[in-house]
Design a protein that fits this description.
5-stranded antiparallel beta sheet; 6-stranded antiparallel beta sheet; alpha+beta; single chain; 2 helices; about 230 residues; elongated
Length: about 230
């Protein structure tokens, strides 16, 4: 019981830290730089639309984002309007992806990379053909830092103390019940002293004495010692 509660408390602490180290940046966040604001527009709510995304239809337009982490994912709309996107990572144009699909969705994956070394990086997305580029958000992760989160430590300690007290109380309860059960068993056995045989005033005790003969061999003789 105690170990289970302690495990759950530590697991919740780990998950809280893991979620805190995943950063999500919205499309209209100023940390994302768009080449020409006049050619980008924010999608408004409407039928068959993906509101909150940044949209461009001009070939050659790009969006840039700088971050410090060890993985990154770019989320956006994919569908029949999707086209070829050029991806430059750390100013090296080494990715080209086609986001055309017959299954349109607003939260499609435009780009993902998790095999990068932790540090400062820059990613650039460029529309390569006369279609649409829609960006919903950018998510990146960074390694967990060994920082002390006081509320989580207090909560973990409280759960551990409560579980420990519960385990002690349970053990005391079991011990008390066991002792009570043993006392009931002992109470069921009664000895009648009058039924015991009387002690004899004369007690005999057999003993074995070892003597050595003239020839050097050991001989055993039994002697009975009577005590009067």
């Amino acid at each position: 019981m105690f170990r289970l509660c302690l495990f759950l408390a530590v697991l919740s602490l780990y998950l809280q830290r893991a979620v805190a180290d995943t950063v999500t940046v919205g499309a209209n966040d100023p940390r994302i730089t768009y080449q020409n604001q006049s050619t980008w527009s924010l999608v408004q709510p409407g039928p068959n639309s993906c509101p909150g995304q940044m949209l461009t239809e001009k070939v050659g337009e790009y969006a840039e984002f700088e971050f410090e982490g060890d993985s990154i994912a770019v989320i956006g709309s994919v569908g029949g309007w999707g086209g070829v996107i050029g991806i430059a990572f750390d100013e090296v144009a080494n990715y080209t992806v086609d986001r055309y699909t017959l299954r349109p969705r607003c939260n499609g994956l435009l780009f993902y990379e998790d095999d990068i070394q932790f540090g400062p990086h820059k990613i650039t997305l460029t529309l390569m053909q006369p279609k649409r580029l829609l960006i919903h958000s950018i998510r990146y992760t960074r390694p967990m830092k060994p920082t002390l989160h006081i509320p989580s430590v207090i909560a973990t300690g409280a759960v551990a103390v409560i579980a420990l007290l519960g385990a002690i109380a349970l053990q005391l309860f079991k011990t008390k019940r066991w002792r009570s059960f043993n006392r009931r068993r002992a109470g069921d056995i009664s000895y009648d002293a009058s039924s015991l045989p009387p002690f004899s005033k004369t007690a005999s005790r057999p003993s074995t004495a070892k003597t050595t003969s003239d020839s050097g061999t050991l001989q055993s003789t039994n002697a009975t010692v009577n005590e009067k």
